[in-house]
Write the structure tokens for this entry.
Amino acid sequence: MSKIRLAVLFGGISGEHEVSCLSAASILKNLDPARYEVLPVGVSKTGQWYLQPAWNGRALAVIENPSQEVSVHPGRGFSVGSHRLVLDAVFPITHGVQGEDGKIQGLLECAGVPYAGAGVLASALGMDKAYAKLIWEAQGLPVVPSVVVDEKELQTDSERAAAYQRAVQTLGSPLFVKPSNSGSSVGVTKVCSLDEFGPALKAAFAVDRRVLIETAIDAREIEVAVLGGADARAYGPGEVVPTHEFYDYEAKYTDPDGADLVIPAVLEAAVSARVLELAVKAYQALGTTGFARVDFFVGKASKEIWINEINTLPGFTTISMFPRMAMHGGMTYPQVLDAIVDQALLK
């Protein structure tokens, strides 16, 4: 049997470029060499694609060799110069903007190349928290109360003050202010006063023109891995226990002691079962296929459950929750990757 020719696409223009490189190195380490012929393709921080040398087991960085620049052709796949790259599938692990928001997925669709993970619509919806919430609410799924504001409506101090008062009246205090369309806690701020509201809006509007204002819930942060399509299965749950005030970007990526990751999460059996059930429902409500991580809040006192967000290209680093939860469910790391690629080949 011939090997599957699989391009692993990593890097990208987002602030998660380095995290993507770490995820890709972990994937390359665990792909079965008897099953795959792997072609690493790196996306530079300015968006160019380059075929990379065979992985040598070391840390990954995108090598920008002009002679190895990859072109994408509608209906005809990839090429390097005049040489066509014949591929069976692409495994994109490009976190963040232009990586998991439907743009790369749309490009791969136009190129006619099967790819791992969620499709165009599910990727775009998963990246935009406000639109994902609208769909989940319409499906009767529990989400954190929130309001959405637009940058053009909040140009003056008086407009921002009025928006803050409306948010407090509707949602209470404290609040979380976050970009609607972003990933990895970029631009997220906890707000306890009007003085903090303006700077929080500025940080969020630097990422997206639409901003989500949410009730700040005293809750545990619970995560679930989901694999598959119509037969999707949930693994976990796990718990993130931040050492910071909340699980911000620094806690995720720059502080090695930013959080403890507990698998399995210590939850009552009924709560655990409900979280797993809701994870699959949230995943399928957006039309997600392949794999994703669904994040929840569970009230510390009330045990009430809220869906927080979905990540359709979760981290695959050596400490990432998604592969660890799937492995705790009985799979090996190579089996997790096989399941994801097998889903891609069905497209």
